[in-house]
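Table S2 (text version). Query chain:
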Amino acid sequence: MTEQQYKYVIVGGGLAAGYAAREIAEHGERASAQLCIISADNELPYERPPLSKQFLAGKKSFSAILINEPDFYTRNHIDVLLETVVERVDCDAKLLITDKGAIHYDALLLATGSSARQLSVPGHDLQGIYTLRLVDDARRIRAAAEHSQQAVVIGGSFIGMEVASVLQSAGLRTTMVFPNERVWESFFTPEMSHFFERYYQKKGVTFAKGSKATAFVGKDNQVAQVILDSGRALPADLVVVGVGVEPNVDLVRDTPIEVDDGIIVNRFLETIEPNIFVAGDIARYHDPLTGKLRRLEHWDNAKAQGEHAARGLLGIRQEYRHVPYFFSDVFDLSYEFWGATDEASVAIHRGDVEGGAFSTWWLDEKNRLVAAFVLNRPEEEADLAPTWIREGARLDPDLLRSAETLQGVASPAKNISHAA
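Corresponding structure-token output:
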């Protein structure tokens, strides 16, 4: 078995890895020349949001979604080992055992991401049933859509909504199936759900709410129907399953590193093992804004944590203090979201929800802003939302609901950290 030695090693080839490599390269040739990326993927690190948006719709090429150009790794003397699986981590020996040899490291960044959940129901292995996590998944869905007429999207949250909008826009008659009584019930307020449902229905999407897929029926090994728990059969040439993801943490289960819905790290993104950092979907980190452990699956979090953990590898030890953020494009709508709603006690809407020009502001029991959603609203709302969340600003609920602008809504003298 061959053995190699690197000062810095990143395990994983996704968003966090791509941005971590860029951060290390920006600290000079000497640092990047001692870096190795190990990825089970067959492609260099690429952006994930376009997979359910522009790339899936055929509006962006693969080269356009690469995080770094291919020659970036050559110029910076970064070794990238693709199609290489890390089988075991020996923390004491600072050793990675891969299917192609052993690699020693001085400092390690784990950024193995997550895998799409599968539906283990009869017929789940038929052709024409897909999940969307990797670029090859998007390629297969896009190719299948070219000769399909009827699509079923299973899942009513982020991925389900984006994929349904792309497929319906491509001319497929699309049905969304989800077990809740309204779309994205775990996140949207009832008013938000009703707006998006009406909007999607105007675009031609149909809903099977309060339903679960219990089986797939095929013809000549190709999916033809989705059977719901009600007994209803939905015709389908193409099925996309978007029912969440699972963090890829099996690599460290036999190590002292703590695992509980992700890999537990401190506010510096460090594990309990020295010189081992974690970033992206698998990191369950101590959030100083709320004082709680949090794991996020957003693009912005993977990017920010990848960059932050890269500085940790280089010995720059700083607290990870970041307001969660994500955005989405569905049909001709674009919205942004900051924060987290789990600590909220009330949600207040501004603007015209029914008309699609509104924002939603979530306050905790002390009227501190913890989350905000903005769609077709003045720029000041998008500018102030992350600042107020970071500062733990207290907002006047009545003013927030009715004021023309946000001036005077916050109480700066009372701004305190959520962790206080």
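Notes on Table S2: The chain has three domains: 3-115+246-313, 118-243, 332-414. The two ends are 53 Å apart (CA to CA).
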